[in-house]
Amino acid sequence: MDDKQLALKALEFSKNAWAPYSGFHVGAAVLLDDGTIIGGNNQENQAYPLGSCAERVAVNTARACYPARRIVAIAIASPDSTVPVSPCGGCREVLAEAVRAQGGADIRVVMADGKGEQVRVAMATELLPYAFEL
Ligand code: THU
Question: Which pLDDT belongs to residue 133?
């Protein structure tokens, strides 16, 4: 599964986003070390702060259902964006925690536009320098 294919999966998962308030539909696709793909999408709520980002839904589902597997990569994409979708600060913290939980093995973050064409790649640790540590 290459970056572009993972980005297209993320776009597919964006179809199940619940985003009636922002109108911004986001999908995420997590790739595990055995090739399994886990999907996520943003799930908004009328009480706005309770909404979840697509990345968070996907990463937490992967960690909840496949705790023994390592997350290799995550792609993020939105049909409503003409530029690559970049994870918000909170999701960067969640990615940093996933890296920590898998013994420091970094996660490839693939950011894509609405066509899965423009793709930007960074490692999770690069996206959150000087991460908070207890
Ligand atoms: N959103 C995501 O799902 N992921 C991101 O990386 C950025 C933002 C969602 C949150 C909210 O439902 C909508 O996009 C607009 O901010």
Answer: 85
